[in-house]
Design brief:
Number of strands: 20
Structural class: alpha+beta
Shape: elongated
Number of helices: 10
Radius of gyration: 27 Å
Order of helices and strands: HHEEHHEHEHEEEEHEEEEEHEEEEHEEEH
Strand content: 15-25%
Largest sheet: 8 strands, mixed
Length: 398
């Protein structure tokens, strides 16, 4: 036996046969079991290393190598295929979550990578759980999700995904109990909403979605959690629902970049390097069209003074700055109206806390900040504030 007879062309022929036959048929044909440790990465897919090299040897010499003729995966199989330019993953490392854990892209896997099974997805590190649809914790945020239409309230729009959290579901995907944000996966996605961190999205085969693969699983890139809410689902139970939006949509237009880096010495110790002239990209996205007139009307009514904390931010020359906060949010999960009764005049700090549920307004207009009473909402007589909108906000952030 001489592995030196095998070149890259022979391995590529074996990969093509693997793809044509499928994993099980390929392994059965050549008498191999699934790789227990080392897998080859090529074109976003995984291949059993020994079986691949055994078949490639057959293409090179006419004699297929059997499993018994291999000894020492790292010194023989991995060494030869690495020398031919192929990439590897160690499944033992992946199984301990040392590789692939964390936020963001996984090296070696680009958007569009396909997998035949959840086991392959887990081995890649893109979504490490074999069954759970959400990987992450409330402390660290979500690393990844799998969307395959398993919940009746899931709604896939391609670059926008309305994703149902986990819990309270029967075997047919119907809700039979309320969900909560205390559940680990739901807490993880809520943390990602608060931090803005990216989440890897894997789509599984789903006949209800035109954006899902016909079979198996596909990595569809990074999404951000744009909104999170506790709402009533189709079955009448409370569900944790998340609006997830793809982080780059449309055609990128590259601008010239000056790769002049600022020294870390200028930023006190271990601060990161940065670009003096950052790269810029133009992306096309969808957004809800809001009426500037409505927001400006409410802000003028209060002379830019926050209805919650009473602060008026001055930006010079007597001008004030405030923000119009929609009580029942306009887009995504909530579909609130763009009307004055649904708008508050808030300072930026209170606006963020109100949108995230750290502040809610009781029926008697008591301000509740972090669960504690904190004064009374200021309401002008001419502001026909909608109590139903405040009730909706309370229920969403309960």
């Amino acid at each position: 036996m001489s592995l030196a007879d095998v070149n890259q062309e022979h391995v590529l022929k074996a990969i093509a046969e693997f793809d044509d036959l499928g994993r099980d048929a390929f392994l059965n044909k050549y008498g191999f079991g699934q790789s227990r440790r080392y897998v080859v990465l090529y074109g976003g897919k995984q291949y059993d290393s020994k079986a691949l090299l055994g078949a490639a040897h057959g293409y090179a010499t006419g004699q297929v190598l059997t499993a018994k003729e291999f000894s020492g995966g790292l010194q023989t199989v991995v060494a030869r295929l690495t020398a031919l330019g192929f990439d590897f993953r160690d499944l033992n490392v992946l199984s301990t979550a040392g590789f692939g854990s964390g936020i963001g892209e996984i090296p070696g896997y680009s958007e569009g990578a396909v997998f035949a099974s959840r086991a392959e997805v887990a081995a890649s590190g893109i979504h490490r759980a074999l069954q759970a649809g959400i990987v992450g914790t409330g402390k660290t945020g979500a690393e990844s999700i799998v969307s395959s239409g398993g919940y009746e309230d899931d709604d896939d729009h391609g670059d926008e995904l309305l994703y149902t959290g986990h819990g309270g579901r029967d075997d047919r995907g119907r809700q039979n109990a309320d969900q909560t944000f205390e559940a680990s996966g739901n807490a993880a996605l809520r943390t990602s909403w608060l931090t803005g961190a990216p989440v890897r999205v894997v789509r599984g085969a789903d006949r209800k979605s035109p954006y899902a693969p016909d079979s198996g699983y596909r990595y569809d890139g990074l999404f951000r959690v744009d909104d999170a809410a506790l709402v009533s689902g189709q079955g009448g139970y409370q569900i944790c629902r998340f609006r997830m939006v793809k982080m780059s949509v449309g055609v990128d237009v590259a601008f010239a970049r000056q790769d002049v880096l600022l020294s870390a010495e200028l930023h006190h110790g271990e601060a990161p390097l940065g670009n003096v002239q950052p790269e810029r990209k133009k992306v096309v996205t969808q957004r809800t069209v809001r009426s500037t007139e409505v927001v400006e009307y409410v802000k003028k009514m209060y002379d830019h003074t926050c209805q919650i904390c009473g602060v008026r931010l001055s930006v010079g020359d007597g001008r004030g700055y405030s923000e119009g906060a929609h009580i029942q949010a306009l887009g995504g999960l909530h579909r609130g109206p763009d009307l004055p009764p649904n708008v508050l005049c808030l300072c930026p700090n209170c606006h963020v806390q109100f949108d995230r549920g750290a502040i809610v307004i009781d029926p008697d207009l008591t301000i509740v900040r972090h669960g504690q009473p904190a004064g009374v909402l200021t309401v002008q007589e001419s502001h026909n504030l909608g109590s139903d909108f405040l009730k909706y906000h309370r229920e969403v952030h309960a």
